[in-house]
Write a structure and sequence with these properties.
This protein is mainly α. It is 61% helix and 2% strand. It has helices spanning 11-30, 39-61, 66-92, 100-107, 117-128, 162-170, 173-190, 193-196, 201-226, 231-257, 277-284, 293-298, 305-310, 319-332, 343-357; strands at residues 5-6, 272-273, 287-288, 339-340.
Length: 366
């Protein structure tokens, strides 16, 4: 697959790019701030991990009814989603700390979710962030089972109902990743992607298999041996936990890119997108609920998705302060800044977009 290039014939876009980078850098210089995390970020990370693991310990060591255990599994799902969004995500981008080993440690929390950090960094950091919302290049808008997320994908009759059934399927996100990680890594190895990332294919397979075996041992094996719950109850709780996490994470991610106003451009015959890369990120991404501090705390600043895509190496704790800089600079150059004022607005916009994608005809594309 030929690499896409971002080239704009509009000199204003290059000026915007240079000024935006300068304005954001100036903010950190004037305020003598590091672009990485701080003590409170580390504190929050352990709180989020606690929300995920403490219910597991309670289920393991304290006799309780099945209904109470089921409630704790839902809490674990909330914690699991929090770990993925608020702990692993920044670390995987190298944004949590200036120290590589600290980022490596915290990004390894991905293994606590049953998934694989190597796969994530290729799919998310390399492809999604580079080719945001570009069909066949950004895997995040590829058709997911029976969910059509891109206007250029093939339209089926059942897609007209996807705005109803999609959220149930979102719940399968983390469960499916546990299994599909294996086939995905094998595909990366086959295509030579793993080696291009300076990684050893056999070693990555071993890491994947060992970490998944340990994951199943901890979250299914140990409870089976040390609690009175039957195997089907454990599987039910495990499924409920993952359904909770999957619905939360999938919905949050989709509200940033599959909403009204988030474009899905195609490259021309020469594989060129006629915009500067930073402008492309603004065209394809949306912020939401910028004043909801509790939401931003829990989801790791992913409600400031524009700022994250423009500056993925900057820790999310800074997004609320650099968002006005981005917005004002974009306004100065007449560049659209897609903002949904509340979580409700973003959710409704996503549902409307799902409905629209379920009805619109396939567009011509290269």
């Amino acid at each position: 697959m030929k690499t896409i290039q971002f080239k704009s014939l509009n000199p204003k876009e290059k000026e915007f790019t240079e000024e935006l980078k300068r304005n954001v850098s100036e903010y950190f210089r004037i305020n003598s701030l590091s672009i990485k995390g701080n003590f409170w970020l580390y504190f929050k990370s352990f709180v989020i991990i606690g929300i995920y693991l403490i219910p597991w310990f309670l289920i393991l060591f304290y006799p309780m009814s099945g209904w109470i255990a089921l409630g704790l599994c839902i809490v674990m799902g909330i914690g699991e989603a929090g770990v993925g969004m608020s702990v692993m995500h920044d670390a995987a981008h190298g944004a949590l700390s200036r120290k590589k080993w600290v980022n490596t440690l915290f990004q390894s929390s991905m293994y606590m979710l049953g998934s694989n950090i190597f796969n994530w960094k290729i799919q998310h950091n390399l492809y999604h962030h580079t080719y945001t919302n570009i069909y066949k290049y950004d895997p995040d808008i590829g058709t997911k089972a029976i969910i059509r997320l891109c206007e250029h994908a093939k339209l089926r009759k059942y897609h007209r109902y996807q705005y109803i059934y999609s959220f149930f399927l979102y719940g399968l996100m983390t469960l499916s990743k546990i299994i599909l990680d294996i086939t995905q890594l094998l595909e990366f190895n086959k295509k030579g992607i793993t080696k291009r990332q300076q990684a050893n294919p056999k070693r990555e397979i071993k890491i994947l298999l060992v970490t998944k075996a340990v994951y199943f041992l901890i979250f299914l094996g140990i409870p089976f041996w040390f609690t009175a719950f039957k195997w089907w109850q454990l599987l039910l709780g495990f499924g409920i936990m993952h359904m909770t996490a999957g619905i939360i994470m999938s919905t949050i991610f989709q509200m940033a890119h599959v909403v009204e106003g988030a474009e899905q451009p195609l490259p021309d015959s020469s594989k060129i997108i006629p915009h500067e890369w930073l402008v492309h990120q603004l065209m394809t991404t949306s912020d939401f609920a910028p004043t909801n501090k509790l939401l931003g705390w829990y989801i790791g600043g992913l409600n400031f998705q524009i700022e994250h895509h423009l500056f993925p190496n900057i820790c999310h704790i800074h997004y609320p302060n650099i968002a006005p800089i981005v917005r004002e600079t974009a306004l100065k150059y007449g560049i659209s800044y897609n903002l949904k004022p509340t979580l409700r607005h973003a959710f409704i916009s996503h549902v409307k977009r799902l409905k629209e994608l379920g009805l619109m005809k396939k567009l011509n594309h290269n």
